[in-house]
Amino acid sequence: MLLDPPRKSAHTRGCSVSALMESTSVTQESIVEGLKNHEFITCFQPKIDLQTDQFSGAETLVRWQTPQWGLLQPGQFIDQVQAYGLMDALTCQVLAQACDLIVAWPRDLPSLRLSVNISATSLQDSENINRWREILDSRWILPSQILLELTETTFVANDLELLEALTRLRIAGFGVSLDDFGTGFTSLKQLRTLPVTELKIDRSFIHDASTQSRPAIVLDSIINVAKRLRITTVAEGIETIEDATYLTDLGCKIGQGYYFSRPLPADRLILWLRQRQREQDSKHA
Ligand code: C2E
Ligand code: MG
Ligand code: MG
Ligand code: MG
C-alpha cells in the first residue's frame, strides 16, 4: 500500500497519527534503508503470572525510528514491510535484539523468556527456522527461551501446512503462541491438533468480558478448553484492575497490558522490574 508522498516535516509536526499516516510514504527504499541503518528498534511489554503475581517474561514489539517522520508504530509500517517482501529481514533483526536482551539480562533478576511476533508467511520458507536457530546459537540461547507469536488472521497456509510448520518450530524447541485468538479462523477444535504451547486471547474479548455476560461465557470456555489441553492462556490488553481481577478469577494464567506496563525500552524494563520487586519485597517484609 503506497501512501501520499511526504510533505514538509514542519507540516506534520504535532499532527495526529492519521494525519501523519497520510503524509508518510513508506516506500520499499525507505524500509530497505531503515533495515540497513538499524532504525527498527524494539520495546518489551511485561507479562505477569496472574495466579502468582510473578514476572513471566515480555513481548518484543517493534518500532521504527525514522529520520524523516520520527517514531512510527507497527500499524504504520508492518503491512508495507510485508507487502514489499521484507518481513523475513525485519523478523531476523527483531529476534536478534530480543536475543541480545536475554544475553544482557542481569543475573539477579528472574530468567527472561521473550515472545517475538512472526508473520505466518515466514513459515512457508522452512529455511527461516534455520536462520532463527543461527541467531540464537551464535548467542548461546536455547529456543525454549523464545516464544514465537503467530497472529491467527495471518494464517495463509492450509491446515496441513500450518500443522507441519508449527511442528517444525516445536521440534526445533521454540514455544509457539497463537496471537489475537478469537479474531481469526482458528477454532477451539483446531487447538486439539495444533501443537501450540500458548494461547493469547484477543484484547477485544478481555474488556467486553469484565462488563458483559455473553463474552464472559466465551472467555470462560476458551480458558477451560486451553487448560484441559495444557495450553498456557494469556490475556492481552488488560487495562484496569477490574480486568486483571476478573481474568485471575477465571483462572487465566498470564496477563499483559497497560495496567501492568506499557511496552518499554530494554533498560526501562529492567528498572521497572527492579522497582516492582522492591515493592513486592516491602509488602511481604
Ligand atoms: P500484538 O502482537 O497483538 O501486540 C499487542 C499490541 O497491543 C501492541 O501494539 C501493544 O502495544 C498493544 N497493547 C498492549 N497492551 C495494551 C492495552 O492494555 N491496551 C491497548 N489498547 N493496547 C495494548 P503495537 O506495539 O502497536 O503492535 C501492534 C501489532 O503489530 C502487534 O499486535 C503485532 O501483530 C504487530 N507487531 C509488533 N511488532 C512486530 C514484529 O516485530 N513483527 C511482526 N511481524 N509484527 C509485529
Ligand atoms: Mg503479539
Ligand atoms: Mg496480540
Ligand atoms: Mg491483539
From TrEMBL:
Protein name per Swiss-Prot or TrEMBL: Diguanylate phosphodiesterase
Q: Which residues of the full protein are shown?
A: 126 to 410 of 410
Keyword check for rRNA-binding: no
Which residues belong to any copy of the EAL domain? 24-277
Superkingdom classification of source: Bacteria
Entry keyword set: Phosphoprotein
Q: Which organism is it from?
A: Orrella marina
Annotated GO molecular function terms are: cyclic-guanylate-specific phosphodiesterase activity
UniProt-listed GO biological process terms: phosphorelay signal transduction system
